[in-house]
Amino acid sequence: MLELRAVAADIAGAPVLRGVSMHLPPGGLVALIGRNGAGKTTTLRAIMGLLPLRGGQVLLGGEEVTGVPAHHRARLGVGYAPEERRLFGPFSVRQNLLLPAEVLRLPAAETARRLEAVFTFLPELATLADRRAAGLSGGQGKMVALGRALIVGTRAVLLDEPFQGLAPALAQRYADALRGLHAAFPRVALLVTESNPQLLEPLVDTTYVIERGEILTADAATAA
Ligand SMILES: Nc1ncnc2c1ncn2[C@@H]1O[C@H](COP(=O)(O)OP(=O)(O)O)[C@@H](O)[C@H]1O
Ligand SMILES: [Mg+2]
């Protein structure tokens, strides 16, 4: 569904990604693990088209999207939950969930169907739907960011360190929600970054380890 071929990128003249190759099959749940500064966020931004590449290719559904602008990649069905959640405080949870789909002018019927599915599998969001985003806790905000990425991400969803800053009980709830959503959207490829491999290992089928902008290993775990 999503493929990176030898992606290279520089930030401020310094190489940050040095030939990153990854493959996310349809319905795959893939982890990208690496220390702070390893290049996880930059890899996701490269997939979204948010930074220029020095080399390599990004393919979506077998088609090259390397030169395709970011908003158009999102419209092709790639959802992205950045590390900072970027919710609109004065808007309700429901409005926050729907906003990217409206900005991208996605078909309203499909968006409504996906909102229903998100409410079914993240019932806490249905409960919070009419609350202002500004009043949410950190954990609730992460759930909204996850739901929002799923509404746009009909083909792939990228989650940047979603467990960071969550208390253990909330992290467990978030992991359960991911598992449920993965079952509910069986064709969507999920890519999740994390600095701590232990959190994701029980969930994922493939783990990539990134260090200083290079993929060290790609371990396909036996499916649990
Ligand atoms: N805004 C920036 N200015 C300069 N260097 C940056 C910037 N953002 C990232 N980098 C460099 O890119 C490297 C990878 O960053 P990043 O992809 O954010 O890592 P991660 O998400 O794994 O913590 C960092 O080590 C840093 O040197
Ligand atoms: Mg990061």
From TrEMBL:
Identify the residues that the record assigns to the ABC transporter domain, covering every copy.
2-224
Q: Which residues form a coiled coil?
A: none
Superkingdom, natural source: Bacteria
UniProt keyword Transport, yes or no: yes
Which UniProt keyword terms apply here? Amino-acid transport, ATP-binding, Nucleotide-binding, Transport
Q: Which GO terms describe its molecular function?
A: ATP binding; ATP hydrolysis activity; branched-chain amino acid transmembrane transporter activity
An example Gene Ontology biological process:
L-amino acid transport
Q: Which family does it belong to?
A: Belongs to the ABC transporter superfamily.
What name does UniProt use for this protein? Answer: ATP-binding cassette domain-containing protein
What is the species of this protein?
Muricoccus nepalensis
